[in-house]
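Ticket #4471: structure export looks truncated?
Reporter: QA, pipeline team
Priority: medium

Steps to reproduce: submit the single chain below to the structure queue and open the exported record.
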Amino acid sequence: MVVTHGSVSPVRGRHALTIGNFDGVHLGHQAMLKRVVSQARASGAGSCVLTFEPHPREFFAPDAAPARLTRLREKLELIAATGVERVHVARFDARFASLAAPRFVEDMLVRGLGVSWLLVGHDFRYGARRAGDFAALADAARRHGFALEAMPEVTHAGERISSSAVRAALLAADFPRAERLLGRPYTLSGRVAHGAKLGRELGFPTANLVLPHRAPLAGIYVVEACGADASDGGHWLPGVASVGRRPTVNEVAVPLLEVHLFDFAEELYGRHLRVRFIERLRDEAKYPDLNALRAAIARDVAMAKEFFAKHG
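Actual output as written to the record:
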């Protein structure tokens, strides 16, 4: 899959296209992407996705923006798995936000991405101040000569599949529900960074993953982890993890994902790790001293090992 960023240059050829944030790439998104791939193959066009970085709500109201389900890297990997040939990641900044609705269609879709067929939801809005709606887009499609299709709502067991529904499931630690909506277990991934080595001093070494955006969950969890790079294979290792700010010592401004893997002694610095969440143990807490923190971690490890013994 070809990934382009920033300003879009006029392309040769035509594309079957869809537009969206695709956070989480849940089953609803997957149905949309597969429809684009199918239409592209049937018409001899290329398949293309237009997405945004950052999320528009992060640009307009960063403090009120929804938690990210997936990092950009994960999102692109999941989109590629559906067979899409190209993704253009538009930089959502002040210039892009001020682009009038007609200019968005003409500059981005028609001249930039060569749209011949477009798939969006009925509630799709676009352009400065969200002035463009589906009716305006249908009129633009007639004028510019591309086909427009509305994506029907995708549901599971009577529930509309959406990124908001996935976030709600994760916040409630309802991982089976999240998996049903996503079509896969929920994971977070990132590159292991050097930390303060406090976990090692306490007897519970951790792999630290800095989360660039607010995660949709927080607390202490039973997890499994494996290398996310292709060369690392897919062997999942049991462990316990914390998602939070480490309030007892060295509190951090940006949340960390700290993973302690059982019976594992290899160096992980610099490697890309994928963490699968299985069961929530408790909230993150602030302890009076390191001995109390060590005892709490020991209890977490014991409970996680007991979980694996029962469900292994």
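Status: closed, not a bug. The export was complete when the record was re-opened. Leaving a note from the reviewer for reference: The CA atoms of residues 154 and 299 lie 42 Å apart.
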